[in-house]
Amino acid sequence: MRNADRFDLADLDISTIDLPASGERSLRDSVVPALALRVRSSGSRSWVVLRTKDGKTVRETLGDAVSVPLASARLMASGPVVAKSPIKEITEPDERLFKPAATVADMLPRFLTFGANGRWKPSTGRQMESVGRTCILPLLGDRKLQDITPQDVACWHRDVTAQTSSARMALSTLSGLMLFAEDHGVRPAGSNPCRGLRKKAKGHRGRHLPPGSVKRLWAALDRLHGRMPDYCDAVRLLLLTGARRSEVLGLQWDLIAGPRAVLEDSKSGPRTIWLNAPAREILDARRAASASLYVFPSPRIDGPLTAMDAPWRAILKEAGLSGMRLHDLRHHFASVAVSNGIDIRLVGQLLGHRDIDSTLGYAHLATGALTKSASRVSSIIDRSMNAGATPKPRHQCQKPTSRSRRALAAAVASSGEARHA
Protein backbone atom coordinates (compact mmCIF):
# COMPACT_ATOMS: atom_id res chain seq x y z
CA MET A 1 0.00 0.00 0.00
CA ARG A 2 1.38 3.35 -0.95
CA ASN A 3 2.00 6.15 1.54
CA ALA A 4 2.15 3.71 4.46
CA ASP A 5 4.07 5.61 7.14
CA ARG A 6 4.85 3.94 10.48
CA PHE A 7 3.71 5.44 13.79
CA ASP A 8 2.81 4.32 17.27
CA LEU A 9 -0.89 4.74 16.64
CA ALA A 10 -1.52 5.20 20.37
CA ASP A 11 0.14 8.62 20.07
CA LEU A 12 -2.27 9.83 17.39
CA ASP A 13 -5.68 11.41 17.79
CA ILE A 14 -7.64 9.54 15.13
CA SER A 15 -10.40 12.11 14.90
CA THR A 16 -8.01 14.98 14.08
CA ILE A 17 -5.71 13.32 11.52
CA ASP A 18 -5.50 15.38 8.33
CA LEU A 19 -7.36 13.80 5.43
CA PRO A 20 -5.69 13.41 2.02
CA ALA A 21 -6.82 15.80 -0.71
CA SER A 22 -7.88 12.79 -2.77
CA GLY A 23 -7.80 9.02 -2.52
CA GLU A 24 -6.56 7.48 0.72
CA ARG A 25 -3.57 7.28 3.01
CA SER A 26 -2.48 4.55 5.42
CA LEU A 27 -0.56 4.87 8.68
CA ARG A 28 1.16 1.63 9.69
CA ASP A 29 1.38 0.76 13.38
CA SER A 30 4.93 0.43 14.73
CA VAL A 31 3.74 -1.86 17.57
CA VAL A 32 1.76 -4.35 15.44
CA PRO A 33 3.24 -3.98 11.92
CA ALA A 34 0.34 -5.78 10.25
CA LEU A 35 -2.13 -3.14 11.44
CA ALA A 36 -2.74 0.13 9.63
CA LEU A 37 -5.12 3.06 9.92
CA ARG A 38 -6.66 3.95 6.57
CA VAL A 39 -7.98 7.49 6.12
CA ARG A 40 -9.83 8.56 3.00
CA SER A 41 -10.61 11.93 1.52
CA SER A 42 -14.28 11.17 2.12
CA GLY A 43 -13.61 11.33 5.88
CA SER A 44 -13.79 7.63 6.70
CA ARG A 45 -11.23 6.15 9.08
CA SER A 46 -10.90 2.38 9.38
CA TRP A 47 -8.56 -0.32 10.63
CA VAL A 48 -7.04 -2.60 8.03
CA VAL A 49 -4.68 -5.56 8.20
CA LEU A 50 -1.93 -5.99 5.63
CA ARG A 51 -0.77 -9.56 4.94
CA THR A 52 1.72 -10.91 2.45
CA LYS A 53 0.40 -13.91 0.50
CA ASP A 54 2.12 -15.46 -2.50
CA GLY A 55 4.32 -12.37 -2.79
CA LYS A 56 1.35 -10.03 -2.85
CA THR A 57 -0.01 -7.70 -0.17
CA VAL A 58 -3.52 -8.65 0.87
CA ARG A 59 -5.62 -6.08 2.69
CA GLU A 60 -8.54 -6.92 4.97
CA THR A 61 -10.74 -4.38 6.72
CA LEU A 62 -11.37 -4.81 10.46
CA GLY A 63 -13.86 -2.04 11.06
CA ASP A 64 -14.47 1.61 11.80
CA ALA A 65 -11.53 3.11 13.71
CA VAL A 66 -13.84 5.41 15.68
CA SER A 67 -15.94 2.49 16.97
CA VAL A 68 -13.27 -0.19 17.47
CA PRO A 69 -10.58 0.77 20.04
CA LEU A 70 -6.94 0.53 19.04
CA ALA A 71 -6.31 -2.15 21.68
CA SER A 72 -8.93 -4.43 20.09
CA ALA A 73 -7.65 -3.73 16.58
CA ARG A 74 -4.12 -4.65 17.62
CA LEU A 75 -5.30 -7.93 19.09
CA MET A 76 -7.26 -8.82 15.98
CA ALA A 77 -4.35 -7.87 13.71
CA SER A 78 -1.82 -9.87 15.73
CA GLY A 79 -3.83 -13.09 15.39
CA PRO A 80 -3.31 -15.57 12.57
CA VAL A 81 -6.86 -15.23 11.25
CA VAL A 82 -8.70 -12.03 10.43
CA ALA A 83 -12.45 -11.74 10.06
CA LYS A 84 -13.49 -11.49 6.44
CA SER A 85 -16.30 -9.02 7.11
CA PRO A 86 -16.08 -5.65 8.82
CA ILE A 87 -16.39 -5.79 12.59
CA LYS A 88 -18.72 -3.21 14.06
CA GLU A 89 -18.90 -1.97 17.62
CA ILE A 90 -20.66 -4.52 19.79
CA THR A 91 -23.31 -3.13 22.16
CA GLU A 92 -25.44 -6.27 22.48
CA PRO A 93 -24.38 -9.95 22.39
CA ASP A 94 -23.75 -11.07 18.83
CA GLU A 95 -24.97 -14.64 18.36
CA ARG A 96 -22.45 -15.34 15.61
CA LEU A 97 -19.46 -14.23 17.67
CA PHE A 98 -20.61 -15.37 21.12
CA LYS A 99 -21.48 -18.92 20.17
CA PRO A 100 -20.83 -21.75 22.66
CA ALA A 101 -17.65 -22.78 20.84
CA ALA A 102 -16.13 -19.27 21.02
CA THR A 103 -12.39 -19.23 21.65
CA VAL A 104 -10.29 -16.87 23.73
CA ALA A 105 -9.13 -15.17 20.51
CA ASP A 106 -12.75 -14.66 19.46
CA MET A 107 -13.86 -12.94 22.63
CA LEU A 108 -10.79 -11.07 23.92
CA PRO A 109 -11.06 -8.14 21.45
CA ARG A 110 -14.75 -7.74 22.31
CA PHE A 111 -13.94 -7.81 26.02
CA LEU A 112 -11.40 -5.04 25.57
CA THR A 113 -13.88 -3.02 23.50
CA PHE A 114 -16.43 -3.41 26.30
CA GLY A 115 -13.96 -2.14 28.92
CA ALA A 116 -12.58 0.70 26.82
CA ASN A 117 -15.96 2.45 26.75
CA GLY A 118 -15.40 4.24 30.05
CA ARG A 119 -15.06 1.17 32.27
CA TRP A 120 -11.26 1.27 32.61
CA LYS A 121 -8.68 4.00 32.71
CA PRO A 122 -6.87 4.33 29.34
CA SER A 123 -3.57 3.23 30.88
CA THR A 124 -5.23 0.10 32.29
CA GLY A 125 -6.70 -0.69 28.88
CA ARG A 126 -3.29 -0.40 27.25
CA GLN A 127 -1.76 -2.75 29.82
CA MET A 128 -4.55 -5.28 29.34
CA GLU A 129 -4.16 -5.13 25.56
CA SER A 130 -0.42 -5.67 25.92
CA VAL A 131 -0.66 -8.72 28.22
CA GLY A 132 -3.49 -10.11 26.08
CA ARG A 133 -1.33 -9.92 22.98
CA THR A 134 1.87 -11.23 24.58
CA CYS A 135 0.71 -13.56 27.39
CA ILE A 136 -2.82 -14.79 26.69
CA LEU A 137 -3.25 -15.21 22.94
CA PRO A 138 -0.01 -17.14 22.25
CA LEU A 139 -0.84 -19.81 24.85
CA LEU A 140 -4.63 -19.84 25.09
CA GLY A 141 -5.86 -18.06 21.97
CA ASP A 142 -7.17 -21.17 20.18
CA ARG A 143 -8.74 -22.73 23.30
CA LYS A 144 -12.52 -22.80 23.64
CA LEU A 145 -13.61 -20.67 26.57
CA GLN A 146 -16.03 -23.31 27.82
CA ASP A 147 -13.27 -25.96 27.95
CA ILE A 148 -10.71 -24.06 30.04
CA THR A 149 -10.35 -25.55 33.53
CA PRO A 150 -8.72 -24.29 36.74
CA GLN A 151 -5.86 -26.71 36.08
CA ASP A 152 -5.33 -25.17 32.63
CA VAL A 153 -5.20 -21.69 34.14
CA ALA A 154 -2.80 -22.79 36.89
CA CYS A 155 -0.38 -24.27 34.32
CA TRP A 156 -0.70 -21.20 32.11
CA HIS A 157 -0.10 -18.85 35.05
CA ARG A 158 2.98 -20.81 36.12
CA ASP A 159 4.46 -20.48 32.63
CA VAL A 160 3.60 -16.78 32.34
CA THR A 161 5.04 -16.02 35.79
CA ALA A 162 8.34 -17.58 34.73
CA GLN A 163 8.50 -15.40 31.61
CA THR A 164 7.29 -11.94 32.60
CA SER A 165 6.70 -9.61 35.54
CA SER A 166 3.23 -8.81 34.16
CA ALA A 167 1.76 -12.11 35.32
CA ARG A 168 -0.62 -10.44 37.78
CA MET A 169 -2.09 -8.16 35.13
CA ALA A 170 -2.34 -11.11 32.74
CA LEU A 171 -4.24 -13.13 35.35
CA SER A 172 -6.59 -10.22 36.09
CA THR A 173 -7.25 -9.77 32.38
CA LEU A 174 -7.97 -13.46 31.86
CA SER A 175 -10.24 -13.51 34.92
CA GLY A 176 -12.20 -10.54 33.59
CA LEU A 177 -12.51 -12.27 30.21
CA MET A 178 -13.95 -15.36 31.90
CA LEU A 179 -16.54 -13.28 33.76
CA PHE A 180 -17.38 -11.57 30.45
CA ALA A 181 -17.88 -15.03 28.94
CA GLU A 182 -20.22 -15.94 31.81
CA ASP A 183 -22.23 -12.77 31.22
CA HIS A 184 -22.76 -13.80 27.59
CA GLY A 185 -23.66 -17.42 28.24
CA VAL A 186 -20.43 -18.93 26.93
CA ARG A 187 -19.53 -20.31 30.38
CA PRO A 188 -21.84 -21.29 33.26
CA ALA A 189 -22.33 -18.63 35.93
CA GLY A 190 -19.80 -18.91 38.76
CA SER A 191 -17.40 -21.10 36.77
CA ASN A 192 -14.49 -18.65 36.52
CA PRO A 193 -11.41 -20.95 36.36
CA CYS A 194 -9.18 -18.13 37.61
CA ARG A 195 -10.88 -18.09 40.99
CA GLY A 196 -8.57 -18.98 43.83
CA LEU A 197 -5.35 -17.87 42.15
CA ARG A 198 -3.79 -14.95 43.95
CA LYS A 199 -3.93 -11.82 41.81
CA LYS A 200 -2.11 -9.55 44.26
CA ALA A 201 1.08 -10.24 46.12
CA LYS A 202 0.34 -10.06 49.85
CA GLY A 203 3.80 -10.58 51.26
CA HIS A 204 4.85 -6.91 51.25
CA ARG A 205 1.57 -5.39 52.48
CA GLY A 206 1.81 -3.62 55.81
CA ARG A 207 5.49 -4.12 56.55
CA HIS A 208 7.54 -1.85 58.76
CA LEU A 209 11.03 -1.08 57.54
CA PRO A 210 13.52 -1.53 60.38
CA PRO A 211 14.50 1.83 61.94
CA GLY A 212 18.13 1.13 61.20
CA SER A 213 17.37 0.60 57.51
CA VAL A 214 15.48 3.90 57.29
CA LYS A 215 18.40 5.75 58.90
CA ARG A 216 20.91 4.13 56.53
CA LEU A 217 18.71 4.94 53.55
CA TRP A 218 18.36 8.60 54.56
CA ALA A 219 22.12 8.92 55.15
CA ALA A 220 22.79 7.40 51.71
CA LEU A 221 20.46 9.97 50.13
CA ASP A 222 22.44 12.75 51.80
CA ARG A 223 25.73 11.36 50.47
CA LEU A 224 24.42 10.87 46.92
CA HIS A 225 22.47 14.11 46.67
CA GLY A 226 25.26 15.89 44.81
CA ARG A 227 25.35 13.19 42.11
CA MET A 228 21.64 12.58 41.63
CA PRO A 229 19.62 15.32 43.39
CA ASP A 230 16.38 14.66 41.49
CA TYR A 231 16.24 10.97 42.35
CA CYS A 232 17.29 11.53 45.97
CA ASP A 233 14.58 14.14 46.48
CA ALA A 234 12.03 11.86 44.82
CA VAL A 235 12.87 9.03 47.24
CA ARG A 236 12.61 11.42 50.19
CA LEU A 237 9.15 12.52 49.07
CA LEU A 238 8.05 8.92 48.61
CA LEU A 239 9.09 8.14 52.16
CA LEU A 240 7.51 11.29 53.63
CA THR A 241 4.18 11.22 51.78
CA GLY A 242 3.39 7.57 51.01
CA ALA A 243 2.61 8.57 47.42
CA ARG A 244 3.06 6.29 44.44
CA ARG A 245 6.17 6.60 42.30
CA SER A 246 4.25 7.83 39.26
CA GLU A 247 2.46 10.44 41.38
CA VAL A 248 5.70 11.93 42.70
CA LEU A 249 7.65 11.80 39.45
CA GLY A 250 4.76 13.36 37.52
CA LEU A 251 4.18 16.26 39.92
CA GLN A 252 3.65 19.67 38.33
CA TRP A 253 4.24 22.94 40.15
CA ASP A 254 0.83 24.38 39.36
CA LEU A 255 -0.85 21.41 41.08
CA ILE A 256 0.83 22.20 44.42
CA ALA A 257 -0.98 24.62 46.72
CA GLY A 258 0.29 25.02 50.26
CA PRO A 259 0.15 21.74 52.19
CA ARG A 260 -1.25 19.65 49.37
CA ALA A 261 -0.80 18.58 45.76
CA VAL A 262 -4.07 18.05 43.92
CA LEU A 263 -3.71 15.41 41.20
CA GLU A 264 -6.21 15.48 38.37
CA ASP A 265 -5.59 11.80 37.69
CA SER A 266 -3.86 8.91 39.41
CA LYS A 267 -4.18 5.15 39.60
CA SER A 268 -7.37 5.59 41.64
CA GLY A 269 -8.60 8.76 39.90
CA PRO A 270 -8.34 12.36 41.16
CA ARG A 271 -6.71 12.57 44.56
CA THR A 272 -4.77 14.78 47.00
CA ILE A 273 -1.24 14.24 48.30
CA TRP A 274 -0.88 15.87 51.70
CA LEU A 275 2.52 17.47 52.25
CA ASN A 276 4.03 17.64 55.72
CA ALA A 277 6.61 20.25 56.72
CA PRO A 278 9.74 18.26 55.65
CA ALA A 279 8.16 17.50 52.27
CA ARG A 280 7.30 21.19 51.76
CA GLU A 281 10.90 22.15 52.58
CA ILE A 282 12.16 19.82 49.86
CA LEU A 283 9.70 21.24 47.33
CA ASP A 284 10.45 24.85 48.30
CA ALA A 285 14.17 24.28 47.72
CA ARG A 286 13.48 22.71 44.32
CA ARG A 287 11.06 25.41 43.25
CA ALA A 288 13.66 28.11 43.88
CA ALA A 289 16.02 26.44 41.37
CA SER A 290 13.46 25.20 38.84
CA ALA A 291 12.44 26.67 35.49
CA SER A 292 10.38 23.67 34.40
CA LEU A 293 6.68 22.90 34.51
CA TYR A 294 7.52 19.66 36.32
CA VAL A 295 8.97 19.15 39.80
CA PHE A 296 11.19 16.38 38.41
CA PRO A 297 11.82 17.25 34.73
CA SER A 298 13.39 14.73 32.38
CA PRO A 299 16.81 15.76 31.03
CA ARG A 300 16.07 14.14 27.64
CA ILE A 301 12.47 14.98 26.74
CA ASP A 302 9.93 17.69 27.41
CA GLY A 303 8.23 15.91 30.27
CA PRO A 304 8.81 14.43 33.73
CA LEU A 305 11.06 11.60 34.83
CA THR A 306 9.35 8.28 34.30
CA ALA A 307 11.72 5.62 35.65
CA MET A 308 14.24 5.35 38.45
CA ASP A 309 15.18 1.68 38.64
CA ALA A 310 18.91 2.22 38.12
CA PRO A 311 19.18 5.16 40.57
CA TRP A 312 17.24 3.18 43.17
CA ARG A 313 19.69 0.29 42.86
CA ALA A 314 22.58 2.73 43.30
CA ILE A 315 20.92 4.21 46.41
CA LEU A 316 20.40 0.77 47.95
CA LYS A 317 24.00 -0.16 47.24
CA GLU A 318 25.23 3.03 48.90
CA ALA A 319 23.03 2.31 51.93
CA GLY A 320 24.17 -1.31 52.11
CA LEU A 321 20.61 -2.56 51.73
CA SER A 322 19.12 -5.25 49.52
CA GLY A 323 15.73 -6.72 48.79
CA MET A 324 13.91 -3.43 49.32
CA ARG A 325 11.48 -2.26 46.67
CA LEU A 326 10.73 1.38 45.98
CA HIS A 327 7.06 0.61 46.68
CA ASP A 328 8.03 -0.56 50.18
CA LEU A 329 8.40 3.11 51.12
CA ARG A 330 4.66 3.53 50.58
CA HIS A 331 3.93 0.46 52.68
CA HIS A 332 6.22 1.78 55.42
CA PHE A 333 4.37 5.11 55.48
CA ALA A 334 1.04 3.31 55.89
CA SER A 335 2.45 0.95 58.51
CA VAL A 336 3.76 3.81 60.65
CA ALA A 337 0.43 5.61 60.40
CA VAL A 338 -1.73 2.63 61.36
CA SER A 339 0.53 1.35 64.14
CA ASN A 340 0.47 4.82 65.75
CA GLY A 341 -3.28 4.90 66.03
CA ILE A 342 -4.34 6.90 62.96
CA ASP A 343 -7.82 5.85 61.86
CA ILE A 344 -7.75 3.34 59.01
CA ARG A 345 -10.10 5.54 56.95
CA LEU A 346 -7.77 8.52 57.25
CA VAL A 347 -4.84 6.33 56.24
CA GLY A 348 -6.82 5.32 53.15
CA GLN A 349 -7.31 8.98 52.26
CA LEU A 350 -3.62 9.72 52.76
CA LEU A 351 -2.71 6.85 50.44
CA GLY A 352 -5.35 7.70 47.83
CA HIS A 353 -7.13 4.35 48.09
CA ARG A 354 -10.41 4.16 46.24
CA ASP A 355 -12.09 1.94 48.83
CA ILE A 356 -11.49 0.84 52.40
CA ASP A 357 -10.72 -2.74 51.35
CA SER A 358 -7.41 -1.58 49.89
CA THR A 359 -6.39 -0.14 53.27
CA LEU A 360 -7.54 -3.03 55.45
CA GLY A 361 -4.37 -4.94 54.55
CA TYR A 362 -2.66 -2.76 57.17
CA ALA A 363 -5.26 -3.25 59.89
CA HIS A 364 -3.29 -5.96 61.70
CA LEU A 365 -0.63 -3.35 62.54
CA ALA A 366 -3.00 -1.37 64.78
CA THR A 367 -2.37 -3.71 67.74
CA GLY A 368 -1.04 -1.03 70.10
CA ALA A 369 -3.76 1.49 69.30
CA LEU A 370 -6.48 -1.17 69.58
CA THR A 371 -5.14 -2.35 72.95
CA LYS A 372 -5.26 1.20 74.34
CA SER A 373 -8.76 1.71 72.92
CA ALA A 374 -9.99 -1.59 74.39
CA SER A 375 -8.56 -0.68 77.82
CA ARG A 376 -10.22 2.72 77.69
CA VAL A 377 -13.61 1.23 76.75
CA SER A 378 -13.42 -1.43 79.44
CA SER A 379 -12.52 1.20 82.06
CA ILE A 380 -15.55 3.28 81.12
CA ILE A 381 -17.82 0.22 81.31
CA ASP A 382 -16.31 -0.80 84.64
CA ARG A 383 -16.91 2.66 86.12
CA SER A 384 -20.51 2.68 84.93
CA MET A 385 -21.16 -0.78 86.41
CA ASN A 386 -19.73 0.21 89.80
CA ALA A 387 -21.30 3.66 89.91
CA GLY A 388 -23.99 2.58 92.38
CA ALA A 389 -21.84 0.26 94.47
CA THR A 390 -20.87 1.03 98.08
CA PRO A 391 -17.60 2.98 97.95
CA LYS A 392 -14.60 1.28 99.48
CA PRO A 393 -13.18 2.67 102.73
CA ARG A 394 -10.78 5.45 101.94
CA HIS A 395 -7.92 3.81 103.86
CA GLN A 396 -8.15 0.82 101.51
CA CYS A 397 -8.01 3.00 98.40
CA GLN A 398 -5.34 5.42 99.51
CA LYS A 399 -2.04 5.19 97.74
CA PRO A 400 0.79 4.24 100.11
CA THR A 401 3.00 7.18 101.10
CA SER A 402 6.78 7.06 101.04
CA ARG A 403 6.82 6.70 104.85
CA SER A 404 4.36 3.80 104.79
CA ARG A 405 6.31 2.08 102.04
CA ARG A 406 9.51 2.36 104.10
CA ALA A 407 7.75 1.02 107.16
CA LEU A 408 6.32 -1.87 105.16
CA ALA A 409 9.76 -2.70 103.77
CA ALA A 410 11.27 -2.67 107.27
CA ALA A 411 8.51 -4.93 108.56
CA VAL A 412 9.03 -7.39 105.73
CA ALA A 413 12.79 -7.38 106.39
CA SER A 414 12.29 -7.98 110.10
CA SER A 415 9.83 -10.78 109.38
CA GLY A 416 12.32 -12.40 107.09
CA GLU A 417 15.12 -12.18 109.67
CA ALA A 418 12.85 -13.64 112.34
CA ARG A 419 11.89 -16.61 110.16
CA HIS A 420 15.51 -17.17 109.26
CA ALA A 421 16.58 -17.16 112.96
UniProtKB/TrEMBL annotation:
Which parts of the sequence are annotated with region: Disordered?
Answer: 384-404
Keyword set for this entry? DNA integration, DNA recombination, DNA-binding
InterPro entries recorded for this chain? Answer: CB, DNA_brk_join_enz, Integrase-like_cat_sf, Integrase_catalytic, Integrase_DNA-bd_sf, Integrase_recombinase_N, Integrase_SAM-like_N, Phage_Integrase
Tell me where in this chain the Tyr recombinase domain is found: 204-375
Which stretches are tagged as biased composition: Basic residues? 392-404
Please tell me whether the keyword Endoplasmic reticulum is annotated for this protein.
Answer: no
Q: Which residues form the Core-binding (CB) domain?
A: 102-182
Q: Which domain of life is it from?
A: Bacteria
Recorded family membership: Belongs to the 'phage' integrase family.
Q: What is this protein called?
A: Tyrosine-type recombinase/integrase
Species name: Sphingomonas oligophenolica
